[in-house]
Amino acid sequence: MTIWTYLTGILVALVILVTVVQMMRHGRLRERHAIWWLVGGVVILIITIFPATLGFMARLLGVAVPINLSLFLAVGVLALLALQHSSEITSHEKKLRVLTEEVALLKQRLETIESAADSPERTGSSVRTTGAKKPNRRT
Amino acid sequence: MGSSLQPTLIVIPAFNEEESIGAVLDEVRRHLPDTDIVVVSDGSSDGTASIVRQSGFRVVELPLNLGVGGAMRTGFKFALRNGYRSVVQLDADGQHDPTMVPRLVTELSQADIVIGSRFAGSGDYKVRGPRKWAMGFLSWSLSKICHTPLTDTTSGFKALNLRALNVFENNYPAEYLGDTVEALVIAARAKLVVREIPVTMRKRLAGQPSHNGLRSMIQLARALMALFFGLMRPIDTTRGM
């Protein structure tokens, strides 16, 4: 490993960390999502500064080729992230569906109330807009 | 018609049905002058909602397309919030005969969900090939799950009573076939009584039948998935959220 590849590795790790922190500062990344990227960035930084740590951990875990350990960990973290995102999309879709339903129902209620308020012959009577017995035809 | 103690609401889910919705509403008004109707426009981008308003009926306009299941759930919420005690789902494409509605509602005294079946004897609706096998398998398995003979599990012509509405209000699947196949599984899990009565189905006034040829194989796969996911749900989600 030349000094240049060594420095390039550190530079990449720093770019990742700075990008994540900048995004957090500007509110484009919430802490709960940023944590994985921060952990990943710090791990990459440690490994690039002290490449021996990767070899040490690989020996400790019985992995013959150290780089395989890093690839395995990277795939694992990314897979977990993808799963977390799928799960959050699902919960967002559910929330969106509920909000869509509520907006539509409120809009309909508003229309009913407005049309009852607009027609002069109804102003005397109580504005019962949600009663089931109310006829649904205005004509 | 249903007694005044149990007011019934007809919910018509409609997604871009401007060609047929007017005729369907006219027909319902002619045959069922005393029944309340609400149309749920499922994110329609055409004139569906304005046609409904011009006809003098109420319309709930979803700003996004949620699918039939989402539209029906909105209809269920509307019904419960406005004091109705039962709902009949009627399609906007003119396939369902409104004169059958009173029969579905009457049958609600025996069951929580009544399905109008195309295959249970009345009318001459026929399907062939893979679609027939798919529907046959679904009918067989759902009959077992619901403890009642069912011949048309994907029928959209249904009546639901208050008990069923409470189960489905927050919990009606919006996925493809979720509103039919998966909903029946949820109903069985929630110990709702399901019954089927024969109805006549007619040709659609507009639009294409949703499935033919290769599509039926895809439909079979998706129906199996809907069945599978219905059975996978933990029991407690069938009691509302």
UniProtKB/TrEMBL annotation, chain A:
<keyword id="KW-0812">Transmembrane</keyword>
<keyword id="KW-1133">Transmembrane helix</keyword>
<feature type="transmembrane region" description="Helical">
    <location>
        <begin position="35"/>
        <end position="57"/>
    </location>
</feature>
<keyword id="KW-0472">Membrane</keyword>
<feature type="region of interest" description="Disordered">
    <location>
        <begin position="115"/>
        <end position="139"/>
    </location>
</feature>
<protein>
    <submittedName>
        <fullName>Unannotated protein</fullName>
    </submittedName>
</protein>
<feature type="transmembrane region" description="Helical">
    <location>
        <begin position="6"/>
        <end position="23"/>
    </location>
</feature>
<feature type="transmembrane region" description="Helical">
    <location>
        <begin position="63"/>
        <end position="83"/>
    </location>
</feature>
<dbReference type="Pfam" id="PF10066">
    <property type="entry name" value="DUF2304"/>
</dbReference>
<dbReference type="InterPro" id="IPR019277">
    <property type="entry name" value="DUF2304"/>
</dbReference>
TrEMBL record, chain B:
<feature type="domain" description="Glycosyltransferase 2-like">
    <location>
        <begin position="10"/>
        <end position="134"/>
    </location>
</feature>
<dbReference type="InterPro" id="IPR001173">
    <property type="entry name" value="Glyco_trans_2-like"/>
</dbReference>
<protein>
    <submittedName>
        <fullName>Unannotated protein</fullName>
    </submittedName>
</protein>
<dbReference type="InterPro" id="IPR018171">
    <property type="entry name" value="Pept_tRNA_hydro_CS"/>
</dbReference>
<dbReference type="Pfam" id="PF00535">
    <property type="entry name" value="Glycos_transf_2"/>
</dbReference>
<dbReference type="GO" id="GO:0004045">
    <property type="term" value="F:peptidyl-tRNA hydrolase activity"/>
</dbReference>
<dbReference type="InterPro" id="IPR029044">
    <property type="entry name" value="Nucleotide-diphossugar_trans"/>
</dbReference>
<dbReference type="InterPro" id="IPR050256">
    <property type="entry name" value="Glycosyltransferase_2"/>
</dbReference>
